[in-house]
Amino acid sequence: MLRLLAEVASGDASPRDALERLSWLPVEEIAANGDAPFARLDHHRSLRQGQPEVVFGPGKTPEQLLAICRR
Length: 71
Known about the structure:
This protein is of the alpha+beta class. It has one domain. The chain contains four helices and two strands, in the order H-H-E-E-H-H. Strands 1-2 form a two-stranded antiparallel ribbon. The chain is elongated, with a radius of gyration of 16 Å. The chain starts with a helix and ends with a helix.
């Protein structure tokens, strides 16, 4: 984040560019027991897209779906 702020201060990035890059910070990867992530939740999707995040269920176990919904 400090690098991004320095880029804005130096003029290498515009405030609008910085806002776009910062909008991806609230993405949370969910994994179980150190395994590879099975989901990526975008907590700010509704702010950027006007539609809330949805859970794609096919291929996920009931336990994985429960872990996602608890977030």
